[in-house]
User: Which sequence fits this backbone?
C-alpha cells in the first residue's frame, strides 16, 4: 500500500507537469461539452433538453479522453529504464501498475466533475436523488477502473511510446459510436446495431437513468457486467505482460 501511494504521487506529478495530458484529460472534455451542447445542441432532436441527454455520454467521453496519457506513461516506464531501477529497489512490482491505475481513476474523477459542473452551468438539471448520484459515482469509478486496467495492458503491450498512444484511439472513438451523442435508433443500419450492443451504451444509459431518477435494471446489469469483464481482461493481460517484460 505504501509503495502504491508513492507511485500514485509520482504519476500525479508527471500528469501535472505535462500540459498535453492535462488538456486531453480534463480540458478537452469540457470543450467537447461546450461544442456539442452550446454550439450544436439545437441541431439534435432527442425529445428532451439536449444538455440533459448529452451529459452522461460526455461523462464517459471524459473518462476515455484521459486514457492515452496512461498508456504512454506506462510505455515510457517500460522503455526508458525506470523499471530496471525499481527491480533493484525494495519496491513492490504490483505498485507500479496500481499506481498508474489509481492515477487514471483520480484524473477521470476530476474530468467528470469538470464536465458535470459545465453541464450545470449550461442548464443541466437532474431528477436523481442522493442514492442515484451515489450510483453515478460508483459506475464512474467502476468504468474508470476497468478502462484503466485495459489501458495499462495496452501500454505494456506496445513496443514504443508512440504505438501506446495510438493503441487507445479505439477506446477514445468508441463512445461516438454509442448513444452518447444521439440515440442509437436514429443511426443508420449497421451502426445502429453496433451502438446498441457495444459495451459503452449500457454504461451511458445507466448513467442517464440514474441522473434522471429512473434507472433501468437491465442496463445496470449489462453495464456492471461489461465493466467487470473489461477489468478482468485488462488485469490479467497487464499482469502477464508486466511479468514477461519486467
Assistant:
Amino acid at each position: 500500500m505504501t509503495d502504491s501511494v508513492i507511485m500514485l504521487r509520482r504519476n500525479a506529478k508527471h500528469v501535472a507537469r505535462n500540459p498535453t495530458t492535462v488538456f486531453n484529460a480534463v480540458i478537452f472534455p469540457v470543450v467537447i461539452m461546450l461544442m456539442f451542447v452550446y454550439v450544436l445542441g439545437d441541431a439534435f432532436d432527442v425529445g428532451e433538453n439536449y444538455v440533459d441527454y448529452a451529459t452522461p455520454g460526455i461523462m464517459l467521453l471524459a473518462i476515455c479522453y484521459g486514457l492515452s496519457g496512461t498508456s504512454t506513461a506506462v510505455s515510457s516506464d517500460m522503455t526508458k529504464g525506470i523499471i530496471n531501477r525499481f527491480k533493484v529497489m525494495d519496491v513492490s512490482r504490483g505498485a507500479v501498475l496500481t499506481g498508474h491505475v489509481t492515477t487514471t481513476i483520480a484524473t477521470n474523477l476530476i474530468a467528470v466533475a469538470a464536465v458535470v459542473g459545465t453541464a450545470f452551468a449550461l442548464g443541466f438539471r437532474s431528477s436523481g436523488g442522493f442514492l442515484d448520484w451515489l450510483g453515478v459515482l460508483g459506475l464512474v469509478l467502476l468504468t474508470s477502473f476497468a478502462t484503466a486496467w485495459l489501458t495499462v495492458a495496452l501500454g505494456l503491450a506496445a513496443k514504443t511510446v508512440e504505438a501506446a498512444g495510438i493503441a487507445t484511439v479505439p477506446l477514445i472513438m468508441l463512445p461516438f459510436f454509442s448513444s452518447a451523442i444521439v440515440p442509437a435508433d436514429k443511426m443508420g443500419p449497421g451502426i445502429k446495431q453496433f451502438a446498441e450492443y457495444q459495451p459503452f451504451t449500457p454504461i451511458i444509459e445507466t448513467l442517464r437513468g440514474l441522473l434522471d431518477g429512473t434507472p433501468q435494471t437491465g442496463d445496470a446489469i449489462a453495464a456492471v457486467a461489461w465493466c467487470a469483464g473489461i477489468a478482468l481482461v485488462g488485469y490479467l493481460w497487464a499482469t502477464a505482460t508486466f511479468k514477461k517484460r519486467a
